[in-house]
Amino acid sequence: MEQPFNISVSQNTLDSLAQKLAVATLPAPAPVTYTDSALDSEDWTYGVPRPTLERLLIHWRTSFLPRWQEHQAALNALPQFTRSIEVDGHGVFTAHYVHKQSTHNPKGAIPLLFLHGWPGHFNEVSKLLPFLTTPPANAGYPSFHVVAPSLPGFGFSSAPTKTGFAMAQYAEFAHKLMLSLGYNEYVVQGGDWGCFIAHRLAYLYGPKHVKAWHTNMPAGRQPTFTRHPLLYLQHAITPYSAKEKKAVQRMQQLRNEGRGYFAIQSTMPQTLSYALADSPVGLLAWIYEKLVKWTDAYEWGDDEVLTWISVYLFSTSGPETTLRIYYETVHQGNFDEFAKLWSPIPLGLSFFPCEFIDGPRTWARTMGNVVFESDHDKGGHFAAYEQPQALVDDLRQMFGKGGKAYGVVKGKDGY
Amino acid sequence: MAGHLDTLAKKLALATLPCPAPTTYTDSEDAQDWTYGVPRTTLERLVHYWRTSLLPNWREHEQTLNALPQFTRSIEVDGHGVFTAHYVHKKSEDRRRNAIPLLFLHGWPGHFNEASKLLPLLTAPPASSDYPAFDVVVPSLPGFGFSSAPTKTGFALPQYAEFAHKLMLSLGYDEYVVQGGDWGRHIGLGLAYTYPKHVRAWHTNYPRSAGPPQLLRNPLLWLQHLVTPYSAAERKGLDRMQFFTNEGTGYSAIQATMPQTLSYALTDSPVGLLAWIYEKLVFWSDAYDWGDDEVLQWVSIYLFSASGPATSARIYYEIKHSGRSKELINIWSPVPLGLSYFPKELTPVPKTWARTVGNVVFEADHDKGGHFAAHEVPHALADDLRKMFGKGGKAYGVVKGKDGY
After folding, report:
1. Which PANTHER family match (chain B) (predicted)?
2. What distance in Å separates residue A223's CA from the closest CA in chain B?
3. Which of A53, A316, B138, B358 is buried most deeply by CB count within 10 Å?
4. pTM for the full model?
């Protein structure tokens, strides 16, 4: 039974947060790496710089938290609901989701499932929604019904309690949610974990239910001669473009310096959980580092950052349950399956310059039946949030009239 | 310190614990399921004990820690300024002896107090025995315990070695021997390599190497390695190493890349710090029966340390980013070396591998003991040092005029 949902953080929780912030202890600043003075707050070499975090902490205590009701109301501007979804072998979950339909085109709008990742959340869809559900009249753009769930363990969905909840289970959860909303056929958009889950959805439930998918995090694997002979050849003879070289370099840098969170979250998430569950400041730093490092010079406002962190802090099962997706997926060997679990349904790729790209385009094309590709000059990992217009343009091109995935959903072409 | 204690009490009172990890056993009530990390039931018990027993009785525990004779002095490290060096300095009880100066080096998440059980065995051997006596120096490494922390980037192995070496010189020990595990082993090798005129021998309970012997670098060992099958114990050790590499190095990955990001959580949350360190105390030891007071005293040294609990993590960052340090970790030194093999060490290596870093004059095998040998099995470690440095030992009399008798 669907229930409308509003985020409503209890006064107890808010008081406890205020008390913790009041006794928050900050670490010493990191060693100086610049020959310049130690006061450079933008030296991110060792991680989030202390002056930056301190400023955010003060803002949290003195401005953001006292005005929490405003920020909560802003989050509640999105229409949210909960309902029960059962996942085989894992019991019944409370699924929390945004569901916004196209009001002027209820029958013909394309059902679109939007999947977040880590440290993302349902609210990443917020800037896309108006464009997708209510495009300007007579502009020739398709309209969509959008469903943006909190993945199990994230936001206001409940968390798995048994080991083994990995890609197939997240896919099942999302798929059953769409079916329960009456969307027997739908398309999927995802980045980060949303990309891997979308890939699995395509494999498990396409082409019968999942008709096409799109990602802003083209991951892919090196083409092998046996699996992707054409791509393999193409990769062998095509030199990397300047953009691709830059992307590969960036990926290398990330691999060397930016994978610590991945290593701990995929091996001992519970050990890390104590610190993140107990320290709002610790949680802020842990996530904020990604918001800055993974975006393309996006100008984060303090309220924006703290609202983002709050979705983690106030989540139903605590911020720590979000870590386990790394543990489960790695231990099931899911990352190696891109090459094997291939789906023929149409796939669209958007390339943003500050995303982590594993390799050149030929690698990304191993992910599926690529019918759409686009290149951008600006944008990073959180494309829907940083570059909503660009992402919307891509979806319009892919799914709109003349697009390669036009009309994939029977009777719902968006017009 | 009073301010610290009040803040700690407040934080413990407000502590929020995470929900339990997913069940991996069919029996969901198993509190000992460490698959995802420290189990909630265990941590909850420790936090409760901290609030209701250890913290109210803190002065007793502080006194216990203060039973070791501790000092501070200034030590300058080239290019990094002057440090406050905090150290234990315990001389041989019997002052007539020509005690061997021994530098004991801890690692992470270790600290100066790891030597506490070892000290009496080294500084006060039974008079009737034929064991040598030592003067022992146990510093807190910069960034740990009550030493000050580096403020400039690039404080890596050569700097830790320089710090320790200058401390020994300043205490009047021109020649000395070294014992170390974890980072202490790496710093020990760095010392042996850099100051061979001063470091007359060294010993480690953490035999490490980059890998098997290489034909060009260690031809004899390479041959030996080729023809000698691994013993059952060595195979078990390799399995353990595999497990550690696959499941146990997350902490090192984050500490070696973004230690500052991690430090906010560990500095602000005593509970988070407890879990972060306690996991190692359990995983890295050989079924050692940790008492609650023991664990919390251990973590308190981190919590109350001079530069905060998380500055210690930076040693991982600095060593990873210093090419010279990586070189030093596997370099060969002619200084006499003793190796003690404990079965539950993190990366138990076969003997032919371990021998690639030095002039091995002593080896000992053990059936019990893990990473924190000095704390877990102090008698076993003391025995090894006595055999190595005592009369008849291969490193007997290495320090001129100070043979321990």
Report:
1. EPOXIDE HYDROLASE (PTHR21661:SF35), EPOXIDE HYDROLASE 1-RELATED (PTHR21661)
2. 26
3. B138
4. 0.94
